[in-house]
Amino acid sequence: MTGKVIIVTGASSGLGFEISKYLAEGGNDVVLACRDKEKAEDAVTKIKTQYPSALVQSMELDLCSSSSIRNFSKEFMRSKRKLNVLINNAGAFVKGKNHSPELTSEGLECNMSSNYFGHFLLTHLLLDYLSQTATIDEESRIINITCRSHNKIGRWYQKDLESLDPNNMQLLKMDTYTDKQAYKNSKLCSVLFTYKLADEVKAENVTPGKYYKNGRPSRSSLESYDLELQRSLWKNSCKVTGIRGSMAAGAAFDNLSLKD
Ligand SMILES: NC(=O)c1ccc[n+]([C@@H]2O[C@H](COP(=O)([O-])OP(=O)(O)OC[C@H]3O[C@@H](n4cnc5c(N)ncnc54)[C@H](OP(=O)(O)O)[C@@H]3O)[C@@H](O)[C@H]2O)c1
């Protein structure tokens, strides 16, 4: 991939940083969307030191703040001519205190907010823009980075977790919260969202949502194919983020291989 405009969320470290560096090296115009300005600038400097002609810039984005997400989207659309790829990579495993969920200033559970709701809102705000680019460059892509642990039956937990409860997705009901369940829910929501999004844009002639594991199309958890759950989540997410339901397509990745 070369010559594309690409946003990578959570690009200040880890996978997001490596993805950004790889894409910049390949001749793409990469926007590192990060919540910490200093870390973001450090990341840009590191990439530019290694690849002086790299087209990289940082922009502020806190996925736990709807105003930050809205400002980011507005600013991005003002400054760039197109958007080929949105990589929803940022993620956090937030441990609540005393078995209670940690909440954002907007009252959302932190794992769900940073890993899922924030990306849901961001994706919707940039959707038209992605779609317009697709009419010029033939395609655009949305990539959601998820995790193997979106499956309730996972080695990571040492024991099985609960299915996603459509009436208690953020585990805010008394005595239902555990940090691992919250993280699992947030990552499952990314996969459910990926499939539902693809379904919503069928008519738009966009590549349908796929799940990749170790760089290959694969099967996600049984729960993620539950159409009723996908619908409930969509409805709930629109309500939480104040979006009126829209469309786009995407892919969910766990263990993204940079060579793929
Ligand atoms: N590492 C693994 O073994 C593994 C396995 C499966 C899936 N994943 C997934 O892969 C993705 C990247 O993980 P990683 O290991 O590279 O993690 P990481 O090194 O901890 O990086 C996470 C990035 O997300 C950013 N971030 C967190 N909350 C944010 C928010 N509210 N707004 C904006 N940015 C935020 C962090 O910013 P700050 O620097 O400001 O904290 C950081 O840049 C995540 O989605 C993770 O769930 C990781």
From TrEMBL:
Sample GO molecular function, one term: oxidoreductase activity
Keyword line: Oxidoreductase
InterPro entries, A to Z: NAD(P)-bd_dom_sf (IPR036291), SDR_fam (IPR002347)
The organism's place on the tree of life at top rank: Eukaryota
Gene3D superfamilies listed in its UniProt record: NAD(P)-binding Rossmann-like Domain
Pfam families, per database record: adh_short
Family membership: Belongs to the short-chain dehydrogenases/reductases (SDR) family.
Entry-linked PANTHER family: RETINOL DEHYDROGENASE (PTHR24320), RETINOL DEHYDROGENASE 11 (PTHR24320:SF226)
Protein name, UniProt field: Uncharacterized protein
Source organism (scientific name): Helobdella robusta
Top-level taxonomy: Eukaryota, Metazoa, Spiralia, Lophotrochozoa, Annelida
Gene that encodes the chain: 20204008
